[in-house]
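Notes to self, Initiator Rep protein WH1 domain-containing protein:
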Amino acid sequence: MDDEQALDHAVTPSPAGEDASPGRAMRVAAALQAKGGDEFAKPGSIVEVKFVKGQSLSLTASRLLALMILTAGGDAWEDRPHKMRKADIRRGHKGNERISDMLEELHRTLFAVDDKSWRGKKATLRFSLISSSREEVEDEEGAEAGWIEWEFTPEARKLIQESETYAVLNRQAVLGFRSTYALKLYEIGALRLHRRQSLWKGDMTALRALLGIAPDVYKDFAQLRRKVLEKAKAEIDQLAHFRVEWREIRQGRTVTEIEFRFEAKDAPEQIATVDEIARHSAGRKARREDEVETVAVEAVTQAAVAALVSKDKTGAGEVTFPNGTIRFGSDTLAAIGRSAGGGWDIDLIADAYRAQMGERLAKLKGAKLIASWTGFCESFLARRGRP
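result:
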């Protein structure tokens, strides 16, 4: 029995006839919240809600919504405000302007679900997910600096409350995606993974509605495949606990439908995924696309750490970062710079590293210095590309 099936057995069914009781999604969310950790449950009704034609959420707003669901946990369906620290949203960004932009985007984006009118006729219900939000604007220092507060709309709360399906997501994976389409497909895959048939099938209109692709974007399927599907698959295969494949269904030469199939990774693959999520995002694309170089960098780093441990035992001391060139007298640092720097001049990278670290560099030694220097070299290559 896997973790998600165990959660299904752990939650207690709601007594019949209690209109104010939450569905299975909220009970699982409460169980995960009590357990702690990075996993949280997003109600299937919210995962599958469709954007109103011509609208979609940006990647940053999609992440914020996921964090709101995570923070609200099993109480997301209740008619009350929820709150979260800005520091949990920014992920290292110094300014708060982007948080204001994300909140405003969530306010103005409309979603749609099938519903019934007051006469019992088929109707489309359009609504926003949050009804109000408050953002602290005074500058403060420390861990408690800056909070936001929000309330979900009655329509959103009803969907959340009644949802019997859910997607178990990983917080670090959600924050790690660089494509809004990849994040959306990740949520769909997590929702459908353990169903009897773990697939999604639809025509091009349904696909665009599912991923929030505007009608005037990627009109040619070959472009949509290259810019959306292939990029989303690459990220999901690297960061999710499952893999995704798709099948194109054609009429003549025209792709009319698409079928996504989601398959859980085996244990070694899941361990590799957990390790990747724990690593710094800098260099992730390079690691995904150039595995040989990644292995070489890791081998050099591991050898460097082993050498440092050996030096410590013999009393030879710990390596420190030199003030001048690293080409002579710093073989360990130079080797890492050549392997992880992608061909850039290693003294150029070293100067940039000194500028970023400042006074902190004097206190950094040994294995911690090796890890920091390796991460910076990978980040330098990821930002600038190859020379």
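- DSSP finds 17 helices and eleven strands in the chain.
- The radius of gyration is 24 Å.
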